[in-house]
Write a structure and sequence with these properties.
single chain, alpha+beta, eight-stranded antiparallel sheet, 18 strands, 14% strand
Length: 689
């Protein structure tokens, strides 16, 4: 089999640029050493792995021997808001714990540290007999993974998660240590953490002090981590190599051409319209009171962030050269498969099968999206309660995935989490969920008629939230322990809504799995295995919100306007941008460029030439927010918080010319801690003093 042309086609991007989000078991250390002269040996990689943490919506890292953790302010914002009140708004005004007893515990916040991982592909694929239908193969593999998960959790006492890589080409078990006592230590004001607001989001140059500090405790004492990343004291310069570890959420680079065309023509436009409607609903709620504005701010921020990210993805897919490259690679791989009888028998028809499933995806999209709980915490808890005891009574092979024996522990933990529910916000979200179904599916849809019963979505949501007790974790536990019959007959109005939703969602979920998901899983895996035979594991898998490593230099790029972006910004630039928009008095762009009063007063004390943010060439996406950026010594030099709009097409097709990440420089963090935030003791701790 002649593979040289195909191998060259896939290898060229890696030769030109620092592409890839690599699993820690398959880091191309020889290629990095050849290009940069840096040896990332096993001990170096293990230290970075154990120092890196997963937040519920991003990444963080240990940065001191006493369990101090750094992440982005925007990753920790929900937790900061959770321990805030109307009288003490820590998001707006910032926070610094002067002593450890003043550090504030965040109920329900859990951090995860990857301890080890194991390839279980052979055992999972062994559960599928030859000739098994796609939908049954999906179930068999899912159940095999769940069983392995249960055994490993019982054996190790760790939290285990099944991970699918390469579109089903590999299956792994990741073992995590979970930390449940996490306390807020310090955070700047949101106005500085997200300076520039939505207008500057996904742009560069930037001036965001996007960090927050937490601490992990164990048995009431600061946790002593096995590994941490001390703050660097060697200045970072343009061209210096940086390495980033984190949990990129999702990419689609391994998808087929048919799937990417769907994203461009249907999927992304649908998501953008969906998010726009959700944002309008939450913004309307935010206008009802000061407290509503405070509690909904993070949700609105997340939605607007998603809108801009999706717009960038669509912009990338719209470039003719993007899908042309995908088409060329696909044609080359299909030609290779056709030349080998074994590969042709296994994967020859897989591209066509996926294209057929894409057509079913289009047909099911509205119902699959609208028949769900979509962000309402209480509605989600209710649906879990309605299902959990009934599912437990079934053989595990017949259960919904989240209720299999291997997944049940995690499902119960989510249900009984002490994390508080913001009732007003949840009511607004539930009303939007019901209104979305009404408007998108139509008044005559059986689900809409059944759940609204002639009432308005707002009235149904109001009654359900006013009458429910599911916001109380003790009550949820009581229901769970009360038995199947008692739970099935309990009159809680939120449970009543979930009982209406349950059969409708089960039906569309079954269609989605049988006609779409199972085909993507089975035939995506076959294509991946064909690619392995052609190229070996010279490629990295798509992102899965699991630990990855990327690298690249501090780097400028062509902005498209005839100039290049500066590698670093400074404190001076922050104050210049603030003044250029007219200062606080102007409050232009909804106050995006205003600064807190103490930052204005501190200007004379600051070394204004201190680097603030920097652009660099690591391959990142959402989920890498909060990722530690380290130098070749493994020292913390900055914290990733964004990437540029031009590079968002990299979710689908990597482009070395535009893929730039943006980080907050460690020197800006230290300057702010010492001279503005009254947190010199934390600066000393992070420097090992």
């Amino acid at each position: 089999m002649r593979l040289s042309a195909l191998a060259l086609l896939f290898a060229l991007p890696a030769l030109r640029a620092d592409e890839g989000m690599w699993t820690f078991d398959n880091v191309p250390v020889k290629a990095i050493q050849a290009k940069y002269g840096v040896d990332l040996g096993p001990a170096w990689l293990k230290n970075l792995q154990l120092a890196t943490l997963r937040f519920p919506n991003g990444t963080g890292a240990f940065v001191s021997r006493d369990g101090l953790v750094i992440t982005n302010h925007h990753v920790g914002r929900d937790a900061i808001a959770q321990v805030s009140t109307a009288a003490a708004d820590l998001v707006r005004n910032g926070f610094t714990a002067a002593t450890r007893p003043q550090e504030v515990k965040v109920p329900g916040l859990e951090l995860m540290m990857l301890v080890s991982s194991e390839d279980v592909t052979a055992r999972v694929n062994g559960a599928v007999k030859p000739g098994t239908a796609d939908k049954d193969a999906l179930t068999a593999r899912r159940n095999a993974l769940a069983d392995l998960r249960k055994v490993e959790e019982a054996k190790t006492g760790l939290t285990c998660e099944p991970v699918t890589l390469y579109q089903g080409g590999e299956y792994w078990l990741y073992r995590y240590r979970k930390f449940k006592d996490v306390r807020l230590v310090a955070a700047p004001e949101v106005q500085v953490a997200s300076f520039g607001g939505d207008p500057d989001n996904y742009t560069y140059p930037r001036w965001n002090l996007d960090f927050a500090l937490f601490r992990v405790y164990e048995d009431g004492k600061p946790y002593r981590p096995e590994a941490f990343l001390p703050f660097a004291q060697t200045p970072l310069k343009a061209g210096d190599l940086t390495i980033i570890s984190g949990h990129p959420g999702v990419t689609y680079r391994g998808q087929t051409l048919a799937q990417m065309r769907y994203a461009k023509e249907v999927g992304i436009p649908f998501q953008l319209a969906f998010l726009a409607r959700q944002r309008r609903a939450l913004e309307a709620y935010a206008k009802t009171s000061t407290e509503a504005a405070r509690t909904s701010a993070d949700a609105v921020y997340s939605i607007s962030n998603g809108q801009k990210r999706l717009s960038g993805q669509l912009m990338g897919l719209a470039k003719p050269e993007s899908l042309a490259l995908v088409a060329t690679r696909e044609e080359e791989l299909r030609a290779t498969v056709a030349r080998e009888a074994g590969l042709q028998a296994s994967a020859g028809g897989s591209w066509d099968r996926i294209a057929e499933a894409v057509e079913r995806q289009k047909a099911l999209l509205k119902e699959y999206t609208c028949l769900g709980t979509r962000g309402s915490v209480l509605f989600g808890h209710a649906l879990t309660l309605v299902r959990i005891l009934e599912e437990e009574a079934r053989p595990t092979a017949q259960r919904l995935p989240e209720f299999s024996e291997g997944s049940l522990k995690a499902t119960r933990e989510r249900l009984l989490s002490p994390r508080p529910v913001r009732m007003g916000l949840d009511e607004a979200r539930l009303a939007w969920v019901l209104r979305e179904a009404q408007e998108q599916l139509g008044e005559g849809h059986p689900f809409v008629k059944a759940i609204l019963g002639g009432r308005t979505p707002g009235a149904v949501a109001k009654a359900a939230c006013a009458g429910t007790r599911l916001q109380d974790p003790a009550f949820r536990k009581q229901l769970l322990e009360g038995g199947r019959e008692a739970l099935a007959s309990h009159p809680d109005p939120m449970l009543a809504l979930a009982r209406v939703l349950d059969p409708f969602q089960r039906g569309v979920q079954r269609q989605w799995e049988d006609q779409v998901q199972s085909v993507f899983a089975e035939h995506g895996g076959r294509i991946a295995r064909a690619r392995f035979q052609a190229l070996g594991k010279s490629q990295y898998p798509d992102a899965t919100f699991t630990l990855r490593l990327s690298w690249g230099p501090v780097a400028t790029y062509d902005t498209g306007s005839g100039t290049k972006a500066q590698p670093f910004t400074t404190f001076l630039g922050l104050y210049d941008r603030h003044a250029g928009w007219g200062g606080n008095a102007a409050a232009a762009e909804d106050g995006a460029f205003t600064l807190p009063e103490r930052w204005l007063q501190a200007k004379g004390r600051l070394a204004l030439e201190t680097p603030f943010n920097f652009a660099y060439g690591c391959d990142t996406v959402g989920g890498n927010s909060g990722s530690p950026v380290v130098n070749a010594k493994g020292e913390f030099v900055g914290i990733n918080f964004d990437s540029v709009l031009e590079g968002q097409g990299g979710y689908y097709v990597y482009d070395a010319a535009t893929k730039r990440a943006v980080a907050t420089d460690v020197r800006a963090i230290l300057e702010a801690l010492r001279k503005i935030m009254d947190a010199g003791h934390l600066a000393d701790e992070a420097l090992g003093k």
